[in-house]
Design goal:
7-stranded mixed sheet, SAM-dependent_MTases_sf, alpha/beta, 214 residues
């Protein structure tokens, strides 16, 4: 995500948080993927996770409920503030996901739940390399993103004038970028667009691990 996108989320943080509050209650399949990911982390001996692009903190809290020690980061200070208010038991801070403020191997898992939707396909290897740097061995990565559609260009969203482009990534392209960044793809899944949830496209989830994972 670019700095410009972060600035746009400053404008809509409150409305965004309200719209997606309890998002997993309406998306049981997504919740199951998140829980399965946490189970994989725990079964490999992991205890810690970083939620990158955490927004108002729904996935962060979901991973914590699965027993992981989780931190969340987001480039929008407004989003971080909302997350910290709603989930005071968890730690959140403002940071750019391309420049994560953690030493090498800090976490056993990284979750990027719809955090790559403003990152071009060409930038994905660089971003995944940044994720790989903060992962221990073995380490796990979960991605969720929109797929199968043209980019969505929005000039108005959540009652505000904005300038946001939502990219719909091809799963094969994402997997290629993961492999190029030192990951092995463990599983991919796709969920059909749910019109009653106002979803514009199908949804994809990818789980990967570091190449040393047995």
């Amino acid at each position: 995500m670019t700095g410009g996108a972060y600035e746009q989320y400053e404008l809509i943080a409150g409305e965004y948080a309200q719209a997606f509050a309890g998002e997993f209650d309406d998306r049981p399949f997504d919740r199951a993927v998140l829980r399965s990911f946490a189970d994989l982390v725990v079964r490999s001996g992991g205890t810690s996770a970083l939620d990158v692009g955490c927004g108002p903190g729904e996935p962060t809290a979901g991973l914590a409920d699965c027993g992981l020690r989780v931190e969340g980061i987001d480039g929008s200070p407004a989003m971080v503030s909302l997350a910290a208010q709603r989930w005071p038991r968890l730690r959140f801070q403002t940071a750019d996901m391309f420049d994560l403020p953690y030493p090498v191997g800090t976490f056993d898992a990284v979750c990027a739940w719809y955090s790559i939707i403003h990152t071009s396909a060409e930038e994905l290897p660089e971003l995944f390399t940044a994720f790989r740097r903060v992962l221990a061995d073995p380490g796990w990565l979960l991605l969720a993103f929109q797929t199968e559609g043209d980019p969505g260009i929005y000039e108005h969203a959540f009652g505000r004038d904005v300038a946001l482009t939502f990219l719909r990534h091809d799963t094969a392209t994402v997997c290629d970028a993961l492999e190029a960044s030192g990951f092995t793809v463990y599983a991919t899944s796709k969920r059909a667009r749910q019109a009653h949830l106002d979803e514009p496209t199908a949804q994809a989830m990818v789980i990967a691990h570091t190449n040393t994972q047995p």
